[in-house]
């Protein structure tokens, strides 16, 4: 009886350790990706320039709500998939790891560009909010990213929907937070300068290395498991 308790305790500690490592890896990757300059930040800055902070903030929360649509869709779709076939779910994880590596390589090979925004007309906070929801909800790249990224950090032995919703919501919250910061720093982000361009390049390279390393680590770890 005592030996069995020790074994159960050891298994529980091992499970907690794996969960902690997995969650830390997820959090690091999510933060790096959130702070990387991209179309999302450029979009909310353009909205801020066109209609002021109220419109910029509205677009931030709109894209956040649109992102949650993808989170819920990914959670329900992947939970149905694993219910049908655990093998299919593992295939999705491998494909997801490969997709992360692909995205990382694209970031590393991306040509240097200065931070620029497309001019937009002011349209009011309410319309900016609705447009943000629609644009993000219909963004196929966001859907593919969540399908590739989230499954890497969940355990099929536990209920999938709560895990996927939690991790996805953290991603959306981080991205929305960075977008809000961009709205309040819109003037500084639009300033030209070699130093600012160099910072953007550094963040982009860091994001690319993170994606490639994460995808490779996850694929190799799964192979050895």
Provide an overview of this structure.
- The chain has 225 residues and is an all-alpha fold.
- The protein has one domain.
- 83% of the residues lie in helices and 0% in strands.
- The chain contains eight helices and no strands.
- The protein has helices spanning 2-35, 39-84, 86-109, 125-137, 140-149, 160-184, 186-189, 194-224.
- It starts with a helix and ends with a helix.
- The relative contact order is 0.19.
- The model has no long low-confidence stretch (mean pLDDT 79).
Structural category is mainly alpha
Number of helical stretches of at least 4 residues? 8
Shape: globular
Gyration radius, in Å: 20 Å
Share of residues in strands: under 5%
How can the largest sheet be summarized? none
Residue runs with pLDDT of under 50 for 5 or more positions: none
Average residue-wise pLDDT: 79
Question: What is the number of domains?
Answer: 1
Extended strand count? 0
Order of helices and strands: HHHHHHHH
Q: Helical proportion? A: over 70%
How far apart the termini lie comes to 29 Å
